[in-house]
Amino acid sequence: MRLLELTGQVKAPTTARSQQFINDLVMDSELLQNLNNFSLGATEGQYRPSDGAQALLSRAKGGSYNPTDLSPAALISDYLKIHGFILHYDETYETDHDLGIGIDMEQWLRDELQNRSIDTSEAIESLIIAGDGVGDNMKGIATILDGVTDIPGLGITGVIDAAATIAGDSLDIGNEANYELFEELFELWRAEVKGVDMIICNRSAAARLKTIGRANNAYNTELNSYGNRLETIDGIPLIRVDDTVIGKTEPDNNVATDTTSIYLCKNRVGYWDIKSNSGLAIWEPGELQEEKMSRALKFEVRGRNQIRHRYAIRRVRNLKL
Q1: End-to-end CA separation in angstroms for the chain
Q2: Which of 40, 27, 28, 32 is nearest to 3 (CA)?
Q3: Which structural domain range is residue 192 located in?
Q4: Is 121 among the domain residues?
């Protein structure tokens, strides 16, 4: 389900200002709007991935196939990572409000939430994509797809070297002479993800992909499920995150720090989804156990990335802008 659906199912906002804050979070982010699958997951969860590899055998007439031994894959255990914030204020401000001599509480809290929505939205994007997984931090897909370690249980790194088919340490897509080559390679890369439903990249890479797409008649626009403009390359939604989330200074094969990555994804249950038991949860003052003479407003998101299929996601690295 989409993030707003999950939020409504688990912890729906209880006031108009909370609802507006949650809506703003999602509308401020192309990623949060267009991710197709957030799914319910327990605080501590286990799953059995399988590479799903299967070759077709032949048999003689009247014969049989040699059976393939099948046994359950090892369980992989993981748990939801918890991120959020609490805003505290003294109840004396509520007294002023009630007496008509001080701040308008409703307007104050509404403005405070509105002012925090963009930063909070970008922080959630960063957790999903770039979370370092250290300690209690969420592990992002860039950390999972580090090119060194395998995706848990799948036996592949899920990383494609864009420079593997050319001479050099990176594919320079800032050079117009490489536009057609990129289009050809892109066709091969997307074939490694069965049913790609989004390209995730930074804003600088998105601008370059749009230029290449226009040059090759592959760029188009449509509306997403919220009625907002959605750009596509070869019919695949192009989803931007900030350049600080997916950097422009990733090392190439010779450790020069001037490349970036794009992510080709299938965001579906059984492929890549985000497990959560919170959605975008927010508690208004009075809903929590509060300290004496204090009021609190709390926001929290609990989640983890789960990649269960070898055809779910690829990171294409060594792209020079």
Answers
A1: 34
A2: 32
A3: 141-270+310-320
A4: yes
Is 8 part of a structural domain of the chain? yes
CA 117 to centroid of chain Cα atoms? 18
Rg (CA), the chain: 23
pLDDT, position 292: 66
**How high does pLDDT run on average in the chain?**
93
What's the pTM value of the predicted model, to 2 decimals?
0.92
Give how far the C-alpha of residue 316 lies from the chain's centroid of Cα atoms, to the nearest Å: 16
Q: What is the CATH number of the domain that holds 106?
A: 3.30.2400
pLDDT in tens, 176-234: 999 999 999 999 999 999 999 999 999 999 999 999 999 999 999 999 999 999 999 99
C-alpha to C-alpha distance for 215 and 237, rounded to whole angstroms: 18
Count H helices and E strands in the chain, helices first.
8, 16
Does 182 share its domain with 233? yes
Return d(Cα 294, Cα 311) in angstroms, integer: 51
Same domain, 180 and 316: yes
Count of CB atoms within 10 A of residue 229's CB?
9
**Same domain membership, residue 131 and residue 7:** yes
Under 8 Å CB-to-CB from 123, ≥6 apart: which residues? Answer: 83
Q: Are residues 112 and 147 in the same domain?
A: no
